[in-house]
Amino acid sequence: MLQKKYFFKMILTALLVLLPVQAWAATVNKMRYSSSPTRVRIVLDTDEKVKYKDEKQGTSIVLNIDAAVAREMSEKVKDPIIKSVVLKKDGRKASKLVVTLNKEQQYKVFALQKPDRIVLDIYRILVTKNTVNQGKGLQYTFWQDDMEGLPIQMHILEVAPDSDYKLLPFSGAVDRNGRGTLLKAANALGAKAAVNASYFDTSGWIIGNLKIDGEWLGMEDKARSAFVIAGGKPQILKDLAYDGNVMLPSLGVKLSVKGINRERIAEDVVVYTHYFGPSTRTNNFGCEVRIKDGKVAEISKAGNMRLDKKSVVVSAHGANAKILEQLRIGDRASVQQTLGNAVADQAELVLGAGPLLVEAGKRNVRSGSEQIAGDIAYGRAPRTAIGVKKDGTVVLLVADGRRTDSVGMTLEEAARYMLKLGAVSALNFDGGGSSEMVLNNKVLNNPSDGRERAVSVGLGLFPKKN
User: Fold this and answer.
1) Beta bridge mates, 389
2) CB atoms closer than 10 angstroms to residue 68
3) Please, what is the end-to-end C-alpha distance for the chain in angstroms?
4) Three-class SS of residue 117?
5) Which positions ≥6 away from 268 have C-beta within 8 Å?
6) Cα–Cα–Cα angle for 152, 370, 374, nearest 5°?
7) What are phi and psi of 347, to 5 degrees?
8) Deepest of 20, 48, 225, 283, by most Cβ within 10 A of its Cβ?
């Protein structure tokens, strides 16, 4: 019996000796590579999860792997940053990946599963994130990143809840509705920093809801999202649609407001405030009524009525103008306005754009439901966005685009970066050639037009008055 057991033991030992090393150890089965504008990626496929350790040896990256390799492998990587790539044996149960570079580069090593593999990313650009404290609750960050194989450059401002700065929209034309460059307007008004904000047309017509200190400066009847400050609390609200009416009880009618502080067109009813400028700039093919302290104070068919801070002017064309002509001085009149949301209606600031990017800490890009135009909703472009963190910190992001060193973002990508920055809610502002950030009297980013584009509305950080 003992002789039989001894015989089987000898046979088993012989079989084990004949088996290759890989029967005891994890193995590297394959090596492959790919390249993109921002990086070279080398992937080692393994048959199970393995341990590894990386180190720098001059201009070489050495990866020591607890996995065997049956034979030496090499890749002829045709890339200017790579000199050679070799995977060789390092004993019976280990291997060594040696990547020799033409110069030192930043890199990252990580493991993935299902299937198991080790990934080495070697970056062409410096992936960096530099933050500078501006003091008084404001900090600026420049972030250059590899966005899934594409280069992106971002400029970020974070405004703490207890900062010495308040957020206020302002006109690109400084003292009236219109367009102007962000840097010039921010400097003229004394802003510490600013980004572009609302959508607009070439005449400066604001496209979006805009309210400052309870005064309406622009409107949008489509249900879209907006940055709101209510009771000092910054937040982002969705589905805000303007509904305004001019109430004329003496005539028993109400007129639907079609626009605020914009050009009057056919069959229009437009409300003008002092924000628009010195006068309405209308022609004499209509009727205008000044409303002050709840009453009609002036009626004119001459057009171009003067504007001031103590009254609003209702300007109408066509059939609506005929109704205004029936009014008399002293008749009761008012403008009633709502966004269909009690918080927004009581808010001291409403700055609308769209679409929503992040809601309740999750991506929720609402391009379709907010009827965002295709040239904004699709593709990569320079982007400007605003987010709010859980603690009330406001995040302003400008991403450059249409450049070899920064390709821009899709709205989905903008949402992902807002989440990375800690925002629990986020909103897209106007982008493209308008995307711009100003800080300390300097344009920080590279506007894609090659120069500053004149914008209609900016969002500025202004020192709080003591």
Assistant:
1) 423
2) 22
3) 100
4) strand
5) 258, 259, 315, 316, 317, 318, 320
6) 55
7) -70, 150
8) 225
At 154, list the tokens: 């971002």
Tell me the pLDDT tens digit for each residue of 376-392: 999 999 999 999 999 99
Classify residue 332 by its DSSP letter.
B
For the chain, the average pLDDT equals 93
Q: What's the Rg (C-alpha) of the chain?
A: 32
Q: Give the tokens for residue 289.
A: 């009524």
What distances in angstroms separate CA 136 from CA 131, 160, 189, 204, 417, one per listed residue? Answer: 15, 9, 19, 33, 25
Establish how many alpha carbons lie within 13 A of residue 259's alpha carbon, considering only the half-sphere containing its beta carbon: 18
What residue type is 230 in one-letter code? A
Token pair in block for residue 169: 């929209």
Q: Note the pLDDT of residue 78.
A: 85
Which residues are paired to 235 by β-bridges? 228
H or E stretch including 114? none
* Count helices and strands in the chain by DSSP H and E runs: 6, 37
Residue with tokens 């005929």: 322
Burial of 202 (0-12, 13-18, 19+ CB in 10 A): exposed
